[in-house]
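User: I'm putting together a small comparison set for a docking exercise, and I want a reference complex before I start. The sequence is below, and the ligand is 5-O-phosphono-beta-D-ribofuranosylamine. Could you produce the 3D structure with the ligand included, as C-alpha cells?
Assistant: Of course. I'll restate your input first, then give the C-alpha cells for the complex.
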Amino acid sequence: MHQLIIFASGKGSNAAALIQYFKEHKIAEVALIVANKAEAGVLTLAKNEGIPSLVVDKKSFNAPELVATMQSHNPALIVLAGFLWKIPSGMVTAFEGKIINIHPALLPAYGGKGMYGHHVHQAVIAHGEKQSGITIHEVNEVYDDGRVLLQASCPVLKGDTEDTLANRIHQLEHFYLPRTIHFLLQSKL
Ligand code: GRF
C-alpha cells in the first residue's frame, strides 16, 4: 500500500476527494495530513477519518524534525492541496520528485506568489479569459514552477463569478487529482 502525505490549509475538499477515491482503489492511503492553520477544515476531516494530522507553524515547518516525521511514513507522494507556504529546500531535496501541487489555473498563466484561491479566479475573469483549468505539477523551490504532470481545462462562462468558476475548477480537481496520483503510483510499481 502506497502512503500519501497531504499538505493543506483550507477546506480540504481535495483531501476528501483523495481519501474517498483511495477507499475505492486500494493502492494508496493517506498516512498524514499537515496543515498550517489550526482552524483548517481539513483537520476536521482528518479527525473524522482517523488520519493522523499535524499543525505546523513557520518554525516547525522549517525544522528537520518535520522531514524526519514525514520520512517515518515512507511516503510515495506528498500532495500539496491548497497549501500556501513555499516548501523549504531541505524538504524538496529529501523528497525529490515526490512532492506534487495542484494549482487552479493553466500554468504558467496565473501562477506565482500571491496567485492562489480566489485571486487566481478573479484575475482570470478580469482578463476576459475564455478558458481556465487546473495544473498538477512537481514541486521545486520556485512557486508553481516544477514539471507539469497534467493539465485539464474548462470554459470560463459569460457571467461567471469567482465562486462559479471556483466550483467548476474544483470539479476538475476532484476528478483529476486522485486519478493522476493513481497513474503516478502505478508507473512507479
Ligand atoms: C484548490 O483549488 C487548489 O487548486 C488550490 O487550493 C484549493 C484548495 O481547495 N491550490 P480545497 O481546500 O481542497 O477545497
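The chain has a mean pLDDT of 94. Strands lie at 2-7, 28-35, 53-55, 77-80, 99-103, 131-138, 148-155.
User: Thanks, that's exactly what I needed.
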